[in-house]
């Protein structure tokens, strides 16, 4: 198969070609929301594959990235799921259980229900990655994909349009957001802390120490919310941000105290694409 592209509706140039078939399919049953950061033992993923097979894997293989599938949960939105157990229940139909949900930073793609018929793709070495450069991001392109043995004008070619957005370069959301604590040095100031995550594959190790940064520099923004309104944005170069007593008083008329809550959004920053995936948390005092 050959992939051509053009910034216009003609003048298509060959970008790349590939010769392997991905294992693709659709949901045979609705797929429901479930927990992340631990096994989802309550949901099943029932898939009709167009070609190929699936089989069960050990937990060691699963935690290392085995049996990974991507499920289209909405327009342009995909959740990566790892499945430990695969059971063939009909020709081409598999019931997948012992699931790890929202993998590789896709936890925000988990939705309440994904309907029957949604697309599913097995993530393996058969997939071909398009050689899109950083300079291509944000630019609308016209694409044509078809048999490499035929000219790009042939009727067998499929036309498509999409704009590369660099989602794979987006920093993951922060993890393990801690309850804020007040500093002894300046009474009333609040320190908000979290743990950095990394999109680097080197982060998938069990060794001690911080995960690789995977960005040009480390930086974060923390939005302080009043409902849907952003009252203030804090910036930080570390995995903590200081919400001073003066800022609290300016925003709320007094210091935040026991029984109150604070809704925040945390973003890690990318020098190339700006804010990464959001981590939304409501803190309780």
Explain what this protein looks like in three dimensions.
The chain has 285 residues and is mainly beta. The protein has 2 domains: 2-167, Thrombin, subunit H, CATH 2.40.10.170; 181-284, Immunoglobulin-like, CATH 2.60.40. Helix content is 5%, strand content 41%. It is built from 2 helices and 20 strands. The strands form 5 sheets. Strands 3-6-9-8-7-11 form a 6-stranded antiparallel barrel. A hairpin with a 7-residue loop joins strand 14 and strand 15 (190-193). The chain is globular. The termini are far apart. The mean pLDDT is 92.
Give a concise summary.
Residues 22-121 form the Rcc01698-like C-terminal domain. This protein is mainly β and 285 residues long.
The secondary structure category is mainly beta
Number of helices: 2
Strand content: 35-45%
User: What strand line-up does the widest sheet have?
Assistant: 3-6-9-8-7-11
SSE order, one letter for each helix or strand = EEEEEEHEEEEEEEEEEEEHEE
CATH topology tier name of the largest domain: Thrombin, subunit H
Q: Care to count the β-strands?
A: 20
CATH architecture term of the largest domain: Beta Barrel
Distance between the termini: 58 Å
Report the CATH C-level class of the largest domain: Mainly Beta
Protein topology:
Blueprint: E1 2-6, E2 13-17, E3 24-27, E4 31-32, E5 39-40, E6 45-49, H1 59-63, E7 68-74, E8 77-90, E9 93-103, E10 113-114, E11 119-122, E12 141-146, E13 158-162, E14 181-182, E15 190-193, E16 220-226, E17 229-236, E18 240-243, H2 245-252, E19 261-270, E20 274-284
